[in-house]
Every structure is written in C-alpha cells, then in structure tokens.
Amino acid sequence: MVHHTISNSSSSAPSASSRIRVMKRASRFLGAALIVGMLASCAVKPPPAPPPALPAEPAPPTGPVADSSPIGPAIQRARSRWVPVRWAELPGFEQDDTSDAWNAWIKSCERPGPTFAPLCSEVRRLSLGTPDEQRNWMKARLQPYRVEPLGAPSEGLLTSYFEPMFDGARSARPGFGAPLYRPPPTLAQRKPWYTRQEMETLPEARAQLAGSEIAFLADPVDALILQIQGSGRVRMAEADGSQRLVRLAFAGTNEQPYRSPGKWLIDQGLLRGDVTWPGIRGTLAANPQALQGFLWSNPRMVFFREEPLSPLDAQFGPKGAQGVALTPGRSIAVDPQSIPYGTPVWLSSQGPVANLQRLVMAQDTGNAIVGAVRADYFAGWGAEAGDFAGRMKQPLKLWVLWPR
C-alpha cells in the first residue's frame, strides 16, 4: 500500500529533501500500522456463547386444582364400562391418608405398563409429599371413571384374602404330618395332573411326589388354607434345630378345577350360614368324620417354591399377578379384563366387617375374581388378617384413576 502510494506521486523527479520527507512519513505510517496489527493479534477474544439450557422438567403440581376440566367420553373394556366423573363423586377422597398407598404405587412402578410408566418419575418424587400434595397431583394428572358392568346394573362384591402364617417342619415328624409340595418332576407330562384324592391314594401318584415335599404342617386344614390362598409364611424348623421364617410362594397347580370345601359342608347339611374359616373349623371339630371328605372335595392342589424373607421383604406380601409385592390394605386383586394391572383405583365398601374408602392399586387376580365391580382386598398376613379376610363379604363400588 505504501509502495502503491509512492508510485502514484508526481511524474517529475523529486528533490533529495522531498524524498527524505516522503520516506519519514512512510516510515511513521508503516510503524503505526504494525502497532495496530500487533494489538489486534494480542487482543483477548470473548468466550464462546454457552449452549442453550435444556428446559427443566416441570415439577408435579402441588397447589389446589380445580375440579372443572373436561372429563371426556366413556371407555369400554372387555368386561366393564368406565364412566367419567368429577373428583367430588369419590366418597372420602379428601380424607384418605394417600401416603399409605404411595408405597404400593411405587411398587407398581417397578413393573409399570405403558400407560402409567410416563408418570412414575413424578410418583417417586411425590413419595415424601403430603396427602394434600398427592391428591392435587392426582387431580391434575388423572381422570376418575366409575366402573360399571356391561349389562344390567348389579351390586359389586368385595372379598378379602391374606397370607397365612404357620409353624412347619422341614421333614415329617410327630405333630407335623401334613405335606406341602414343590412341583413334581412329572407335572408337565400329564394334564391335568392327579387330583388331591389320587395324590393321597394312588401308588403311582405317591411315587411321583416322593422327594417333592417342601414342608410339613401340623394341620391338614392349615395346608388347605395355604393352598387356597396361594402363598404363605412358614416358621420353618430345620433338621439342625434352628428356625427361620420363609415364604412359600405359588409355583403351579395340578390344573384340576377348584371347588369350594365350604360349599361341600353346606351340601352335606353340616354347615349353615357361617361360611368363614372359624365357622368351618368349628363344624369340622364337631364332625371329625367329615374331615377327609372335606379335604378331597377340592381336587385342586397348589405347589410352592421357597423364598427367603429378608426384614425388608417381610414388610410386604407375596408378589401378585402384576409381578410386584403386595401391600397390606392397599393392594387388590381384580379381573384384568375389567381393570388392568398397575391401575390406581378408588375403593368404597361399607358393611359389617369394615368401612373402606381408600386409594388402592390393582396388582393381582384370582380364579374367583371375575366381573366388572369385583375385588379381593389384600389384608396382610397372620391370624388377625386371616380372621378379617374370612369374614369379609360386602357391597363394593370402584373408580379407576386413568391418565388424562
């Protein structure tokens, strides 16, 4: 650039002094340009702009939620019809301590279906929330539906079940002679397998059962109760004299039909009205000659597998059909063609045994649990739960809580 300026000066030859002045001016101009360039190269560059922040996950709503959002159409299931309602229809909803039910909901989130899986992160975060915060979250995220039968209106039915707890022995000995079995090796080779009576009387059936004994109880009626309930806890006396608590979990059946031993006593004219386990035991004590027929009246046999019970496992029941551990007072068995597993349900039942208005989780099923408004309430384990379950038979209303 300096050279270009010199070449475009006057065409006449300049004097020596003029040439010196021009060279000084050019030198000063060149020095200034070099200094500017050096400063520019040494300037501190600004840091790059940070990447845009990711949007924060919205917090679960905890404030009051209006009960006025659109409720949408009814939903048809294979064995039920769900009618949308307002939250105000659910009796006792504002009074339930829903934090008791949250443990059962978190259990369901161990194996959630596709409908409820997206909500599980919020369910877990609300595990330490207050009942009011949990209720407000449900009102914002869920829509209640009243469960109705597909045909003519009919009254629902609530029964109850429990996990029995008995003393047992690892091997047969005086006072412990009622066997419980793991699945025998030939179980899959014959369908249905031998009946209960055949298993006790036919030599070939007894031979195939040999070695499959998992425990021995003191009372054959206790063994039948454990088989009907499908699982139980046993305080097991080991061969070395030690004792430990184990769970005998459901592992299969002989695929024979279930028949009610209580109904057999009624048909024999031995039992009237009190079809509960205390009533059945009293009848058998008064009629010991009926015991064998009572036991054989139900051809179905249930087989078990043994599971250790850690202190944590002991706080929950056995695994239900959903594949998660049941929570006393907050898990129910349902007809999965009416209510899918893992669904939160509002339950209302009033009767002589209990007045229940509470949040429960549909986590199990049973052979007798069929129909739209039908549920079996898991009462827990032990004698007190067994007494409750044996007497429970009340009218029932159900509402499913389904994502909006």
Q: How would you sum up the major sheet?
A: 6 strands, mixed, barrel
CATH architectural type of the largest domain: Beta Barrel
CATH superfamily of the largest domain: RlpA-like domain
Per the CATH scheme, the topology name of the largest domain is Barwin-like endoglucanases
Placed side by side, the strands forming the largest sheet appear as 4-14-11-13-12-15
Q: What proportion of the residues is helical, as a percent range?
A: 25-40%
Could you list the spans in which at least 5 consecutive residues all have pLDDT below 50? 1-48, 51-56
> Which overall shape is indicated by the principal axes computed on the Cα atoms?
globular
DSSP strand count = 15
Distance between the termini: 74 Å
Question: What radius of gyration results from the CA coordinates?
Answer: 38 Å
Number of separate structural domains: 2
Oligomer: single chain
Residue share in β-strands:
15-25%
Mean pLDDT: 86
Class by SSE composition: alpha+beta
Q: Assign the CATH class of the largest domain.
A: Mainly Beta
Specify the number of helices.
12
Account of the protein in words:
With 404 residues, the chain is α+β, with helices and mostly antiparallel strands. The chain has helices spanning 2-7, 16-42, 99-108, 120-125, 131-141, 196-201, 203-209, 220-229, 261-267, 277-286, 291-296, 382-391, and strands spanning 75-76, 81-84, 142-148, 156-163, 165-169, 178-181, 213-217, 232-237, 243-253, 302-308, 331-334, 344-350, 355-364, 374-381, 393-403. Strand 12 and strand 13 (355-364) form a beta hairpin. Mean pLDDT is 86; it is low at 1-48 and 51-56. It folds into two domains: 75-159 and 318-403, RlpA-like domain (Barwin-like endoglucanases, Beta Barrel), CATH 2.40.40; 165-315, Barwin-like endoglucanases (Ribosomal Protein L25, Chain P, Beta Barrel). It contains twelve helices and 15 strands. It has a six-stranded mixed β-barrel with strand order 4-14-11-13-12-15. A six-stranded mixed sheet has the order 6-7-5-8-9-10, with helices on one face. It starts with a helix and ends with a strand. Residues 165-305 form the Lytic transglycosylase MltA domain. One of its GO terms (molecular function) is hydrolase activity, hydrolyzing O-glycosyl compounds. Residues 48-67 are annotated as: Disordered.
